[in-house]
Write a structure and sequence with these properties.
The protein has 271 residues and is α/β, with parallel strands linked by helices. It has helices at 2-12, 40-55, 66-87, 128-134, 137-154, 167-170, 175-185, 208-223, 236-245, 261-270; strands at residues 16-18, 21-23, 29-31, 61-63, 91-99, 105-115, 121-122, 160-162, 193-196, 227-230, 250-251, 259-260. Strand 6 and strand 7 form a beta hairpin.
């Protein structure tokens, strides 16, 4: 069967010449080998599962197997659990400190965690993609903003909290309006800052190109009267270089890891 399908693919994948233009088409194939006693609906279901996998795979010819079904079931169960977790407020923000050179905390970044009923904590890499695929990220993102606003409105010592936004949220036409309404309802001023991804920082202190890039970003931000905050500061040498460039605020494991909100506020109170 695979040999036959491969031959078909070789033929239909050849360039087509239409009105003087070369058209190249790409194909995917999902296959299921079944016996005469199999139910027709089940055969089509399994063939469609194989086709869906083929469309998202480098291998454009996929045969159905039980693992595909198991993965689908696992994904379905996880999605159900995520919906329950959202309604039970198990999706919570952890806070990672943003500090001055002397480690004084002035702000934080909010990072999403799934705190399960048994006390276990799942990082976003375990579930963010699923939230984006099923559209829940829009509601979850607004819930994150509400939690952040609650913390800010109750703690004057904390000047600001950064949040991360998914591209899926940015495609929502009413996102800005809803975010503005949430922030306004807590009477919180919006801040203007730029976060610099850790990929620009982790090569320090040895990479001259990274230093030049960080200098350029700092100068651009300064020109627009924006404060830039580098992420991923993990050692004193990196801190020294960033400080010499002109940066005033920093984030990274050198200053602290993401921790539950109550622990963060306890640390803030002690300091």
């Amino acid at each position: 069967i695979n040999n036959i399908v491969s031959k078909i693919f070789n033929e239909i994948s050849k360039p087509y010449y239409i009105d003087g233009e070369v058209i190249e088409l790409k194909f995917s194939s999902g296959l299921h080998v079944f016996s005469i006693i199999d139910n027709a609906d089940e055969v089509m279901r399994k063939a469609n599962l194989a086709l869906k996998r083929a469309k998202s795979s480098k291998d454009k010819i996929i045969f159905y197997n039980i693992l595909i079904d198991n993965e689908l079931q696992e994904k379905s169960t996880k999605e159900r659990d995520l919906r329950e977790a959202f309604h039970n407020r198990e999706l919570k923000i952890f806070l990672q400190p943003i500090c001055k050179y002397d480690k004084t905390i002035v702000g934080a970044e909010a990072l999403l965690r799934w705190v399960k009923k048994d006390g276990s904590v799942l990082p976003p890499i375990e579930f963010i993609q699923l939230l984006e695929e099923n559209g829940m990220i829009v509601s979850v993102g607004e819930e994150i903003l509400r939690q952040v606003c609650e913390v800010l409105s109750e703690n004057n010592e904390l000047k600001f909290i950064d949040i991360n936004v998914s591209p899926v949220q940015l495609r929502d036409e009413k996102m800005a309006e809803r975010f503005f309404n949430i922030v306004s309802s807590y009477e919180i001023d919006p801040f203007k800052k730029i976060k610099i991804d850790r990929s620009f920082v982790f090569r320090l202190p040895n990479d001259r190109k990274s230093i030049k890039l960080l200098e350029a970003i700092y100068n651009i931000a300064k020109a627009f009267q924006l404060e830039a905050i580098p992420e991923g500061v993990e050692n004193e040498k990196q801190l020294e270089i960033l400080s010499m460039i002109g940066y005033k605020l920093f984030q990274g494991f050198f200053f602290g890891k993401p921790i539950p909100t109550y622990e963060f506020l306890k640390r803030l109170t002690k300091e």
